[in-house]
Amino acid sequence: FIHTTAAGVPIDASRTDDVFSRVVLCGDSGFLLMSHVFFQYTVLVRTDKDLNVQWAKRLIASPQGYMPSDIAELGGAHYLVGSVQEAIIDPGLALYGTWAAVIHKLDGNGVLVDQCIVADTVHDPFRYGLLTPKLAPAADGSLYMCTSMLPQALAGTCNRQHTVIKLNGDLDLLWCNRYPMTSYNEAHGLSVLANGDLALMGHYTSNWTPCANARLFFDRLDTSGAILQAHAYHHPFPSSTGFGPAVELPDGTLMLAH
Question: How far is residue 197's CA from residue 193's CA, in Å, rounded to a whole number?
């Protein structure tokens, strides 16, 4: 793990035996890192700004299926989100074969202090699964989550609906909005802009499966979830998927990875 300046000049480096899949900058200029092995365990490491380890936690997952997908720091607390098979939460839901989002909250010392489950309990019998949830903390203390919701009946396809959920720091649900598209799509990242608006990034395609020929979409949302702007981006490069959230630069422009 290498810490660099904005120009890419190395400042410090640290080496561990884990492979980190996610790193976030914390409010005190330290770092929160996530490493995981699907269905086995998740490791969270907290460092100071000089990459000295402050604490490390290993969370054991159910062998039946827990997939961590993102981390965040907000007001000194640390958050881990992932997807879990609903049948683990309630065996009576095994028929649906869908996934719920689970958010864990840890305090400044890495101690688990709260957790919540976010799941579709409305669209029976075709429940929506919450896939690859991602977090975006806001300066006002809100915690946003984006996910791609997929009906159980359409599992294995790209017929998803990108969804944004707003919670407070205590993990109380404030609102949830779905944004259906006429094309097959998937949300890949959510970021909070300097003025408080949200930047939702994803891809869309006309292919049912395997989600080929994907192109970018960008939705700008206000703090109530209303769409302010929506754009699609076509480019001459080879199509691809799997990018992250937009990064706002000091001049207000957005940088996207594709």
Answer: 5
